[in-house]
């Protein structure tokens, strides 16, 4: 906290503020500019004019009235000086009330000035740019969006701008005209009274454009661990602007805000070659590959860090692969390959990014993986039952034994045959150590439905049953370790590709 003095109801003489009243306030160091204005207004009894307050402090510049406090950064600087600099400890904030009467507005040949009314009924000026059709388009929509009433523009040309309430019976009216042969514009008529009925208030406000709304929600997107949904945008816009927007507009606002905070998705893809170059420079022996289509557009990405390539030979010869959906603007699939080290810890081997899980993408990923880490004796690859994975393994790793994650197989089995006890019997069969025990549980499942046993035998028990594995599996019967990596980057799956890659790098 800091003790701040407030000087008000005085006058200026030779750049000195004299004959004023003085008050002392306790102000927190994290106070915003708006909050400080509200606190000052309340303390000196001018709450209805809080938005008109102008704050300055005298920095002994002699030729100036003082340094103006206009935003949050200015407030922080002033409070820092008060707290830490002896000469500023008793330096007051000088409070002035800004005049709002406007006679003439200066413009240019291609612009006209319009007046809008804020909630506090203050006249505020804003420029309106003219389009190719000699119409006008507002620059600052905030003033009109914060109002609960819509307006229409019956006339807008080089000489005159008129605005009326959307309700034809309402008396609200604004007329702005060019002042003679100058570049000055004069407010000819302005009736600041809405007589429209409530049915015209707070619909899906057409002046509340998506790019305007995005400015209000950008601070909500800073933390990737906090999920901010479109329905929350609708709720927040209602609270802040008093306007109800539809889902589509809120979604577009969300995308605009993400582009502003995280950077445009297209730019992220364009920077991939530079990122990969710097990655290999700072992580020797790393391998990166980018594949483009015939139109020079991004198609596939593969990344294997040098430390992963070097340490693979010390891991167990079992590779677990999986793919998960990305939720960024252009979608895509994150491909993951990982193993277990000697301490039974999860060890990421490589990552990839492609449009979808197809024969082409998985084959390209496995080909790049084999180029990076090579093969191993008695190699096993564990995955779900995706057909493209099986096809790619046959082509790229024909020497490897392809095994199926028993959790994925169990889910498929239960969806196909919804019978009691199937869950427990399948896991007992999959985890059985001896063949007789395995046959016992298979018979029990067959008694529930004979098709269950046929289905499992068709898949091949050697691909999912422990007692029938032709090679050592090191007790890795699921693809859970790959799922764990997917979960670790869950919060950044909506972010551009560079943000995702950097988060993966940090995890390693």
Q: Describe it for me?
A:
With 508 residues, the protein is an alpha+beta fold. Helix content is 35%, strand content 25%. Strands 16-17-20-19-18-21-22 form a 7-stranded mixed β-sheet, sandwiched between helices. A hairpin with a 2-residue loop joins β2 and β3. α4 packs across α6, α5 packs across α6 and α13 runs antiparallel to α14. It is elongated, with a radius of gyration of 34 Å.
Briefly, what is this?
With 508 residues, the protein is of the alpha+beta class. The protein has helices at 33-44, 72-84, 142-145, 210-217, 230-241, 247-262, 265-270, 272-282, 306-311, 359-373, 387-396, 406-416, 422-431, 435-448, 450-459, 480-488, 497-507; strands at residues 2-8, 11-13, 16-18, 21-27, 53-57, 67-69, 93-97, 104-106, 111-117, 123-130, 136-138, 151-156, 160-165, 173-178, 184-191, 287-292, 298-304, 318-325, 333-340, 346-354, 380-383, 401-404.
Question: What are the SSEs and their pairings?
Answer:
Elements: E1 2-8, E2 11-13, E3 16-18, E4 21-27, H1 33-44, E5 53-57, E6 67-69, H2 72-84, E7 93-97, E8 104-106, E9 111-117, E10 123-130, E11 136-138, H3 142-145, E12 151-156, E13 160-165, E14 173-178, E15 184-191, H4 210-217, H5 230-241, H6 247-262, H7 265-270, H8 272-282, E16 287-292, E17 298-304, H9 306-311, E18 318-325, E19 333-340, E20 346-354, H10 359-373, E21 380-383, H11 387-396, E22 401-404, H12 406-416, H13 422-431, H14 435-448, H15 450-459, H16 480-488, H17 497-507
Parallel strand pairs: 1-7, 18-21, 21-22
Antiparallel strand pairs: 1-4, 2-3, 5-6, 5-7, 8-15, 9-10, 10-11, 12-13, 13-14, 14-15, 16-17, 17-20, 18-19, 19-20
Helix pairs in contact: 4-6, 5-6, 10-11, 12-13, 13-14, 14-15
